[in-house]
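Lab notebook, page 48
Experiment: co-folding of the full assembly
Goal: obtain a model of how the components sit together before planning crosslinking
Operator: M.T.
Materials (sequences as entered):
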Amino acid sequence: MTALDDLMRRLLFLPEARSTFAVPVDRLHFFVITVTMIASTITGLMAFFFFFKYRERRPKQSTPVVVPSMRFEFVVIGVPLFFFLLWFVQGFKDYVWYTTPPKNATDVYVMAKKWMWKFSYGGDGPNAIGTLHVPANRPVRLLMTSRDVIHSFFVPDFRIKQDVLPGRYTETWFEATKPGRYQILCSQYCGTWHSQMWGEIVVMPGPEYDQWIIEQRRGLAARVDTGGDDGPSFHGSIVEYGKKIAMDQGCVKCHSLDGEPHIGPTWLDLYGKQETLENGETVTVDEAYLTDSMIDPRGKIVKGFKAVMPTYKGRLAAPEAAALVEFIKSLRTQNLDTVPSKEAIYEPVKPAPRR
Amino acid sequence: MSSSETHAPNPHLAHHFETIEKQDYAVRLGMWLFLGTEVLLFAGLFLGYSVYRHFYHEAFHEASRHLDLWAGATNTVVLITSSLTVALAYHAIKKGQTKRCAGLLIFTILCAFAFLVIKGIEYHHKFQEGALPGQWYHYAEVTAPGANLYYTVYFLATGLHAFHVIVGMSILIWILSRVLRGHFSPTYYVPVELGGLYWHLVDLVWIFLFPLLYLI
Amino acid sequence: MAHETPETPPSQIQQHEHGTGRYFLVWAILLCFTAITVITGRTDLGSANLPIALLIATVKATLVVLFFMHMTEAPGANRLVFVVSLVFSIVLLVGVFGDLWTRHPMSLPPTAPTQESFDR
Amino acid sequence: MSQSNQLHDDSPPVYPAVNYLNADRGVWSWLTTIDHKRIGIMYLVSVMIAFLLGGIFAMALRVELLTPGPTIMGANTYNRMFTLHGVVMIFLFMIPAIPGVFGNFLLPLMLGAKDVAFPKLNLLSLYLYWTGATIALCGMIMGGTDTGWTFYAPYSTSTPMTLFPVLLGIFILGFSSIVTGLNFIVTIHTLRAPGMGWMRLQLFVWAIYATSIIQVLATPVIGLTVLLVGIEKVGGFGLFDPTRGGDPVLFQHMFWFYSHPAVYIMVLPAMGVVSDAIAAFARKNVFGYKMIAYSSLGIAFVGFFAWGHHMFVSGQSSFNDGAFAVISMLVGVFTAIKVFNWVATLYRGAIAVKTPLIYICGFLFFIVFGGMTGIAVATVSLDVHWHDTYFVIAHFHFIMVGAVIMAFLIALHYWFPKMFGRMYHEGWGMVAASLIVLGFNATFIPQFLLGNAGMPRRYYMYPERYQALNVASTAGASLLAFGFIIILIYLIYALVRGKVAGDNPWNSRGYEWMTTSPPPKHNFDHPVIIDRDSHDYQEPGEEVEHVVI
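Observation: model returned without errors.
Model output:
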């Protein structure tokens, strides 16, 4: 059975099932899709076969009047209805199970925002951007809200998805079955970089996770999770290279690319701009200022922003810094209309107490 | 073709209909279908009203108390009366009483105008108070969450309705001009009937809007 | 609908004659109902306010449709069209409210009624 | 008129000297015409242009997706491009395509009428279509609309791009659609020729009737919805804006209340075309006429109760999810009934394998596969994974392209001689048809697999593991495009140089073939009296063999 499942999974290009919910979903999926393929192929082939079997043999050939019997009508209505309802019953049963998180689930709060995922573990637990650490074989409930538009939290390996709405909470839950790293994708269109709104779930064995969370609480590992692994060396233009670094280093988690101020100033049209600093001075944003700001971010803070950026001294090689500068330089308003950018006004609502 | 040869030629009969009765039947059916689309159009707004009333019950209740009940009630009476007169106008033209029909239509149009004037005064007050939709809302009297949505729904619903009043009024003026030019007779009065139907629909919508917005 | 054919001359239905009296009668009833709805609307009847107002509005609307709009004399197809449009308006409302009434309370806007206020 | 004479007429075909095409001359006579046939032809030209535009946008998207990173355009351009593709294909092509072109041209012919009930309204609907199309297209291209054709709030109300023109355009297009639907309903009620009871209507007419009901009932709601979004975008009314207490899910309810039935506005006429064409090419009485006719109405009706299956992961309640899911299954049953009947109509027919038959074969496969994957995505637990992925894209393209465009091509080939009195080249027709059916499979089957693998829709860049399937899909799309180019060429050639077809080249028994091809200005030169059923292929006096299966 599992061998057959695995064969079907490979044929259908499904990722491996890595959550408790994925297993029944895949079973039903295989059943439904097999019936679908059989039915549609038979229909197509039957039509094709009739074209030859009953082709016109002489002009204006006469044909019999074929009428359906009661039995035929019963079959054509009954058989599809039987299958459809069977699928519905099984599907809805699984779905209800999926929409009812177990009481003992670990809660993680998820905040979506153009174009990043932010996770916080409640209480004095850690916050993380882009990467969600969860224990294997324990249910985890996600309470999700959005700061701007509708996003959708999608983990293909877990077969779960839930829209994340601004102004209210939605929830979903899963129980990962195997330690590993799984991709989070945003599947509800949310603007320019919708297709880059990725994150990662790191599933750890239970004890390791407990250790991790304790460490996090102690603040020992107060580092920014960067998400994504360091791939092989990059081949492409310097701007693309800069972009990759910006993604890998998590720059874009604080600096938006679309003109909207975030934790840091936006990179759109940043290069060449006159910025007023905290101390009232003005500075022209050029290569020197940009490079300085990566190495000594707290030296010249643009007015209206907090000095929260960590130094990237030692974390960026010179060519990487240069690539980043080139990437920033490439971000000009030509594709985007200039509009007064506004900060999202919505603050997360207070979650309702657990029932 | 054959039908127009055998029947007495009727200038109002289109070439593709056999008889004027069939054509009238078609036109009436078309009108009712159109009224059906209007019902669905307003259904969307009533849905918006119901949903936000469900969410923000308190705010809707409170805000409805800050509308001018007497303006609303007067407008209801005005519209119901205009509905009566347009029905009477239809009755008159069927009997061939052209002058009576014209007089009733003029009265109906005046009612429509009166409705718009009263509505305009109400709008003016709301603009002054700052009881405006969505982001423009700055009315100090009602501060419950959702009050801005009440005024959003209020302005959208009454605005769309007022637009229908204007359209209805224009149609009635056009029909009046045709009545005065003697286009209609006891054998041909369908446009008067259709104009009347449209006007009744305008009344119908208001019959629901009035209690929902002003009273509860 | 399917069995209604234009062969039955629809025009005959229009021949039915009556005086203007019934229009005035309907008008008077409508005005009465308007007065009633204003009075009941502004008295606090608790949760009964909404159903009463809707009931009165429905009665008024029915009168307008039946007599002012001559639905009583209209052929079947026209009646059907109008009724169907009302039915689908209700379908729209029911579909959405089926969702609102059963939605997870956290998925409603923050100031929306909570589970407790439903139970009350 | 006696149909049997026509069937036994063996004299060489003649092109009618005076017909609707040359009865009046000059551009002005076309622009001011109230002849339903000319309006149909103008619709044909308009929707073909829209289809060409939408197709170019689609090809641009497919080329962009050849590589995981940027290929030929920027992210914003891509987002605008898929919005353009969606809006143009749905509102400018799919919805008016079959009703606007073939409904207009054929409905009065099939009813034995001289015109539709309200010819001037009919022309108005075409002008509204042109106005709406121009406003929507200009608005999208100049304003850079990037919301997708679904306009989900609050993204649509907060995007910096211009949105109002396209919404206004759609509002006007909605009006056009309503006017067409209203006109058709009244026409079918009042203008049937003597002897034509409801059970003698052709199945295409039944399908158009059901479609029109949806158009009239559902379109006002989308009109209002896009208007509300437009007002909110311009005026900040806050109706769908959560920062002001609005509910974005309400938008989705209102949007899908139209947009789900809109699927049936597109697919019902397609089913009608296939019902008629199958009977004509199999020379056989339609199997289960009543079942097909009533299932059209059934789909139109039940289609209104299924909109919530687009919202399973939107935060809608589980109760609603279940209710909408189970109703969606019923739509599947109605479609299944039709499919069984079509296949059974072929059984023991005398099938003339012509170009439309290739499409019919493709159509049958596509509608079963597309329909049943529709059932699959309506199966709630499965939809969680598939929602907003390429699986859904592939599913609805199987219906929209696989069923509707196949049917559009069936209609175009089947009724081309009716419309223009000339014949296209059969060989090239077959080649193009085979290319299109194959190319279609090659384009969209990989997309099902992409969806399984988890690639979300509207993705400009994607993880590298999805590249192989994307390349396969793009390759298939170019095959598809190639097929369409062939069709365009041989049809234009046939228009000018094609063989004269004769009045009834297929020996079809459809009522529309009872007049000359192309028909005269007022459709029939003789009074029409119907004395037989619409798909009655028995010769008078012929021994009828009855078979019960």
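Interpretation: Helices of chain C lie at 21-42, 49-68, 76-102, 115-119.
Next step: discuss with group before ordering constructs.
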